[in-house]
């Protein structure tokens, strides 16, 4: 048999999915894969039930149902102040995952380079490989996750750099980029003429006093920013697979074509049901923020009580726990032991870093109170249980 594609040869099994299997094996409470264990807003599921009987059930327009795009344009305009043409500047995709792939395919040629901050969401590495581009990593240095402006410029100015991927707020480190940092990135993007592809799936999960600044709203950035986002996290519907690209019309024209060939379109009945969510008023987003702040405080207060060290998230729903005190050389082995001996599933931080970082593991806390309390109970005597 001829060998399968060399491009996909280097792909490893997703570490997050692997840790989910490890968690299941030891009946651990799984805080590795980031999805909520609570229900989406009832308005959405009620509407979905109605749609099940009345439709639509056939293909929507390939770049997304008209009412979905119109509602989305209004919502985005409301929060960002950007003016968006729903017919020319939005492509609805199957999750932000497809949005990012379609954006990358639209921008990159094989051997182009793409700048990625490390630690990074694991799909970005795969996206660059699938497009044939080469990733260049710029470290966000723990524990503050700041970047060095000179290091960033050295990366961006390399020959062949076409784009920078900006995950803001960041998974896994919970960083919310400040306006000053974004302005610095924007200046470099303009100076070296590159695109910025944003991943803003956690835009509404931000902890005060931090605030989300949209890269596309900074001076001169609208024309070179490709926003990738989704409804997964904002409406607790990770399984609905509804995402989108927002970009200037000429870029969207290309993204539409890539998207059409990749997936034809997002699920029509789910788009129809999700319009209900896009039309929610500000109260919904305030409550979402309060709910996440509550979960974050419950979890991090518990960690503090146990005396564990961790990074306080500014946004998104992850905590990086510092495991240096346990003396493990491998964070992967630590996570396997944690699932087996303590009964809690986490992701080894090394799977997110390009640099040699082995002392952090990631928990997510988008969980019901009783789940988080059960985790904290299990972690209470972690030092005893994880003795080597
Ligand atoms: C930073 C980031 N981007 C994208 C995704 C995937 O989003 P979607 O469900 O919209 O494909 C996730 C999921 O965890 C994520 O953390």
Verbal overview:
This protein has helices spanning 15-25, 42-54, 66-80, 95-107, 123-131, 149-156, 179-191, 249-263, 268-278, 282-306, 331-342, 369-379, 382-385, and strands spanning 29-30, 90-93, 113-118, 134-139, 161-167, 195-199, 225-230, 243-246, 309-311, 318-322, 344-345, 347-348, 360-364. It has 388 residues and is α/β, with parallel strands linked by helices. The chain has two domains: 15-40 and 283-385, Alpha-Beta Complex (Aspartate Aminotransferase, domain 1); 54-280, Type I PLP-dependent aspartate aminotransferase-like (Major domain) (Aspartate Aminotransferase, domain 2). Strands 2-8-7-6-5-3-4 form a seven-stranded mixed sheet, sandwiched between helices. A four-stranded antiparallel sheet has the order 9-10-13-12. A two-stranded parallel sheet has the order 1-11. The model has no long low-confidence stretch (mean pLDDT 96). Bound molecules: pyridoxal-5'-phosphate (PLP). Residues 34, 95-97, 121, 167, 171, 199, 201, 230, 232, 238, 243 line the site of pyridoxal-5'-phosphate. Pyridoxal-5'-phosphate binds next to helix 4.
